[in-house]
Write a structure and sequence with these properties.
- There is one protein chain.
- The protein is an alpha+beta fold.
- Helix content is about 25%, strand content about 30%.
- The strands form four sheets. It has a four-stranded antiparallel β-sheet. Strands 3-9-10 form a three-stranded mixed β-sheet, with no helix packed on it. Strands 6-5-7 form a three-stranded mixed β-sheet.
- It starts with about 25 loop residues before the first helix and ends with a helix.
Length: about 220
């Protein structure tokens, strides 16, 4: 995108250097920002890096959380064939897989053409990076509740750091709020739905799945 402006970023976070080749630039930038505890945004075709400001605490016990949903889908690929240099049956082929994902979802294959190298180590490294790019991370959507002590747009907003308690039997987790949807509903209070995603790991998703299962069990009873 030739019209995207990237001004000199402020001196925030650590220095990160990485070579990218056929990667999702947005996905990699989100990964970098998460690791550094920073936020990124594009406003009027200008790319900015910022330090998250404000904070929010979400839990049913505090009265700031009405409910939550989590979604986790199969990866785009979990088994990679990498074709290196050579022709026909003499061509070097390296296979890399995410065994845990294959066991959970079945095999989803992709092919990466790397005729420029005959190094098995380099091909294997490319395979690991491809798997990292094709994984679909969980997304957590919450319905926030405004209280006197915590108001959307005053105490927290898009890009704020959220501390969330979803399971009373597990410790809280912290994530940057990546999206906020505000739904106006007639004479009733607006529905405010902040979303967390990108760096939400499998341990968290399993925690959410257990919570969802408990809720469904209570609803059946």
């Amino acid at each position: 995108m030739t019209d995207l402006l990237v001004p000199t970023p402020p001196a925030l976070g650590p220095t990160i250097t990485r070579r990218l080749r056929y990667h999702s630039l947005l996905g990699e930038m989100v990964r970098f920002a998460d690791g550094a505890g920073l936020g990124i945004e594009v406003i009027d075709l200008t790319f900015n890096v910022f330090q998250p400001t404000g904070s929010a605490r979400f839990s049913v016990e505090l009265g700031t959380l009405a409910g939550s949903e989590s979604a986790y889908t199969a990866p785009d690929a979990n088994y990679v064939y990498l074709g290196g240099g050579g022709e026909g049956t003499a061509r070097l082929i390296v296979e890399v897989q995410d065994a845990a994902s294959v066991s959970q979802w079945g095999r989803f294959e992709t092919f990466v053409d790397r005729r420029d190298t005959t190094s098995p180590t380099e091909l294997a490294s490319e395979g690991v990076e491809t798997l990292a790019d094709t994984v679909t991370l969980p997304i957590v959507e919450m319905e926030a509740v405004n209280t006197e002590g915590q108001l959307f747009g005053v105490d927290w907003t898009l890009g704020s750091l959220a501390t969330v308690w979803l399971d009373p039997d597990a410790p809280p987790f912290e994530q940057v709020i990546r999206e906020v949807v505000v739904e106006l509903r007639g004479n009733t209070p607006a529905a405010i739905r902040p979303s967390l995603g990108g760096a939400v790991d499998m341990a968290l998703w399993k925690q959410l799945a257990r919570t969802d299962a408990r809720i469904r069990t209570l609803e059946v009873r």
